[in-house]
Amino acid sequence: MNIADMNISKVGFGAWAIGGSGWRYTWGATDDDASVAAIHRAVESGVDWIDTAAVYGLGHSEEVVGRALAGLADKPYVFTKAGLVWDPDNPSAAPYRTMKQVRREVEDSLRRLGVERIDLYQVHWPDTGASLEWSGGDGNAASAPTPLEEYWQVMADLKREGKVRAIGLSNHGPELLEIAEGIAHVDAIQPGFSALNRSAAPEIAWAREHGTAVIAYSPMQSGLLTGAFSRERVAALPADDWRRTHPDFTTGLDANLAVAEALRSMADRHGVSTAAAAIAWALAWPGVTGAIVGARTPAQIDGWTGAGDLALTPDDLAEVAETLRRTGAGQGPVAP
Q1: What is the pLDDT of residue 143?
Q2: Closest Cα to residue 334, out of 311, 317, 310?
Q3: Residue 296's Cα: distance from chain center in Å?
């Protein structure tokens, strides 16, 4: 699967959860040794790219990835992101969406990762000049937003200078992608996409038309589609786990678990895990190049590395589509 001249595996290692605790969007405490071992297990299993971001753990995820890379002779590609900037004196506050510091950000990421060039550098969100959760009127705006035309030109300059190998946009809609493409080719996009979150279908269609790779994040919808969740497990999540209060895990939980059950049925027919079936569903969508899958321990790797080789049938996809129609779970088209 190609991004620029990189032929990547269909699944990649997602490093959000290994950022650890002590920041706004933590998945809870992690063991760095286990995180490094998980990355090594993924690479040994054929995964050849890692996706992280400066904001994950406020730099800690990139540091852990850098430590894992140092212990590998055959190093995977490294993808990271800019544009979410945090206040080191208030780590629990929501980060700001700003691209005003991107040249400093890229140097910091290179240092933490211990690499000379980032393989895919992405803008995490459109620049608003405000905190990620700011909705206006409360004085939290950091500054005037940087127009896409300006920050995408900076990204193109970083590529030309050799700081990065390819450039991409995460969470940008088709209108913004079209503007960016007029400045420099969008090598990749990274939308959230799963059987429960199909709202990025227009962006994926745009990418398919423009020769742009699509790296889907959260194909298991933050663990909901692994087959391992229940109301009891949600209730047992650590107090600082962001999922405890998210609608996917509260008001939408019953419908979402019904979709997980449909995926489990499909997985049983193929002799794979429910997690692998959920990832394969995302990869089966026309235009999707690869899927990011998170893990914090080596044991979590074993259930999904074969998802890229799983060929779903029309009947498989129809069964999931029917469950989506019946439950009303998620948002977006139920089939291409």
Answers
A1: 73
A2: 317
A3: 15
CB contact at 8 A, 196 and 224: yes
Task: Work out the burial of residue 328: count CB atoms within 10 Å of its CB; fewer than 13 is exposed, 13-18 middle, 19 or more buried.
Answer: exposed
Query: Nearest-CA neighbor of 330 among 280, 265, 271, 257?
Result: 257
The candidate with the shortest Cα–Cα distance to 51, out of 93, 18, 97, 91, is 18
**Residue pLDDT, tens place only, 55-84:** 999 999 999 999 999 999 999 999 999 999
Beta-carbon contacts of residue 97 (< 8 Å; ≥ 6 apart): 83, 84, 124, 125, 126, 127, 128, 129, 130, 131, 132, 145
Contact 205, 179 (CB under 8 A): no
What letter does residue 131 receive in the DSSP assignment? Answer: E
Task: Report d(CA 123, CA 229) in Å as an integer.
Answer: 31
Spell out, as residue ranges, where the chain has pLDDT lower than 50: 134-139
* DSSP-derived secondary structure for 177-225: HHHHHTTS---EEE-B-SSSB-TTHHHHHHHHHHT-EEEEB-TTTTTGG
Q: Which residues of the chain form beta strands (DSSP E)? A: 2-3, 6-7, 11-14, 49-51, 77-82, 84-85, 96-97, 118-123, 130-131, 164-170, 188-190, 213-216, 290-294
Q: Which two tokens stand for residue 102?
A: 């991107």
The domains of the chain, with CATH numbers, are 2-327 (3.20.20.100)
Bridge pairing between strands 213-216 and 77-82: unpaired
Q: Which two tokens stand for residue 317?
A: 């996809």
Which of 284, 288, 291 is CA-nearest to residue 312?
284
DSSP 3-state of 97: strand
Q: H or E element: which one contains 34?
A: helix 32-44
